[in-house]
Design brief:
Mean pLDDT: 86
Number of strands: 14
Structural class: alpha+beta
Oligomer: single chain
Strand content: 15-25%
Shape: globular
Largest sheet: 6 strands, antiparallel
Length: 272
């Protein structure tokens, strides 16, 4: 009996130690991603120890780099970003979301067709604006954007919302926003024949590739259908992406059903 009791005590001690280590890891990740005054790439390299680990293990850092990391905050709230948004007709541009995307060499996967307004919707009109900054050359081989010209004039076909709580948890669900006949066959997927290259199915569905060089900024409305294909090259394709919407001074409201909600309903960051 003494032996069994000692074994149980040792097992409990080991379990407790593992839980403490896991909690410590989560805390370290939070500090690195949101409070360290370094670029995302420097933070990730410090955390995992090498560029090889970054390439092999990570594909996204989000969704608040523009708020918590000075390097990204400086760019995000700059007058260049603000003047560009206002020049396109946005009256009170604010930023609810930012992301650093890694499309890794040889293993970076495809991103299915979607409209950003599906995930970031406003009322009484859709005002999502995407700013896609290429940090590497984006090519057909390493997974550049594909867009469907003219689709920015279409309605937001569905929205991703927080459903009412069940068992003290919100469930995220897609809700149709238009009649069934206005949906596209590749909703949340990819058109038939999208692979292999030359991707004939994409061309037939009306998509065209947007190749660009490092430093180029691709800007598009939230209703635009877009996607990207796998990275089959030996080159990385990193991007930093901002999503802006018009704020309350433009008579626009962030939908209360959006999946993304700031704690205590804090206002979104304004741009200069």
């Amino acid at each position: 009996y003494t032996y069994v009791s000692a074994s149980l005590m040792l097992y409990s001690l080991i379990s407790f130690t593992i839980i403490v280590i896991l909690l410590l890891c989560v805390y370290i990740l939070f500090v690195f991603f949101f409070f360290k005054q370094k670029t995302a790439y420097e933070m990730l390299r410090s955390l995992v120890g090498s560029e090889m680990c970054i390439r092999d293990r990570l594909n996204k850092v989000g969704h608040g780099l523009h708020v918590g990391v000075p390097d990204f905050q400086e760019y995000s709230r700059s007058s260049k970003v603000g003047n560009l948004a206002r020049g396109l007709g946005w009256q009170d541009p604010v930023i609810p979301q930012s992301m650093y995307i890694f499309k890794q060499p040889r293993i970076g996967g495809e991103v299915t067709s979607h409209q950003d307004s599906c995930f970031l919707h406003t009322e009484p009109r859709q005002t999502c604006l995407g700013m896609w900054l290429a940090l590497h050359d984006a090519t057909l081989e390493n997974g550049c954007l594909w867009i469907r010209p003219g689709s920015h004039k279409e309605a937001t076909r569905r929205v991703f919302i927080r459903a009412p709580k069940e068992d003290d948890r919100h469930k995220m669900v897609f809700i149709d926003n238009v009649p069934a006949e206005e949906h596209v066959p590749w909703e949340g997927a990819l058109p038939d024949g999208w692979w292999p290259m030359p991707c004939e199915g994409l061309w037939e569905a009306g998509f065209v590739p947007v190749e660009c060089t490092a430093g180029d900024l691709v800007v598009f409305a939230g209703q635009l259908d877009h996607l990207s294909l796998p990275n089959v090259s030996d080159s990385p394709r990193h991007t930093f992406q901002l999503h802006l919407v018009d704020g309350p001074n433009a008579g626009v409201k962030w939908s209360e059903s959006n999946w993304l909600q700031y704690e205590d309903q804090k206002p979104f960051m304004s741009v200069s």
